[in-house]
Specification:
- The protein is 22% helix and 34% strand.
- With 185 residues, it is α+β, with helices and mostly antiparallel strands.
- The chain has 2 domains: 103 residues, GMP Synthetase, Chain A, domain 3 (2-Layer Sandwich), CATH 3.30.300; 63 residues, SH3 type barrels.
- It has a 5-stranded antiparallel sheet with strand order 8-7-6-5-9.
Length: 185
């Protein structure tokens, strides 16, 4: 499984990137939310035939730098991300979303720095170490044991040796600010 891979195909007019004033750089008067909805439709159309792949999120900077995060139940390879990037770029041009070509497009898998956003991501990461930041900024670190539609269970380890204690935390999704995967060395 490859994570955090980014594929970037900038347009031929990339030298103009960021020179238009905000928000006039939006195509045909589309606001950011409308652009994201349109891109979601395009990406979901491309992923419809891809077993196990799913859209996580889309971000658009005022400079028309578009970042699309795609994940997979078994991960997603760099070759597949490159194919999605090329197909999406072509569809965006066909739709005339940016007629002047003033945009850049990056399609990547969410890296470890990106928090989990979808239930499907929680399911795929059961058994891994996570750091959960709650709404009150309290943090719980431990192993993700399970996830269902209402929340997660994280097992926290306190102490060492004979004083080692395992504490299971049942955390509801509305109480979670962010959940990030932790790397163990």
């Amino acid at each position: 499984m490859i994570t955090g891979i980014s594929i970037n195909f900038a347009s031929a007019n990339d030298k103009k990137k960021g020179t238009d004033s905000f928000p006039s750089s939006f195509p045909y008067g589309m606001n950011n939310d409308e652009q994201i909805r349109k891109l979601e439709q395009l990406v979901n159309g491309l992923l419809a035939g891809e077993e196990g792949l799913f859209l996580v999120s889309i971000r658009i900077k005022p400079t028309n730098n578009i970042r699309v995060y795609v994940d997979g139940d078994q991960g997603v390879g760099i070759g597949r991300l490159a194919t999605i990037n090329r197909s999406l770029y072509k569809k965006m041009e066909e739709e005339g979303m940016y007629p002047d070509g003033n945009f850049s497009l990056e399609v990547s898998s969410p890296g470890l720095e990106e928090p989990l956003k979808l239930h499907r991501q929680y399911l795929k990461n059961i058994g891994r170490k996570v750091e959960v930041t709650l709404l009150d900024d309290a943090k719980i670190e431990g192993r993700l044991l399970s996830a269902d539609q209402i929340g997660i269970v994280v097992e926290e380890e306190k102490g060492k040796g004979k004083k080692k204690e395992l504490i299971q935390h049942n955390i509801l999704f509305p109480d979670i600010k962010t959940t990030k995967i932790q790397i163990s060395f």
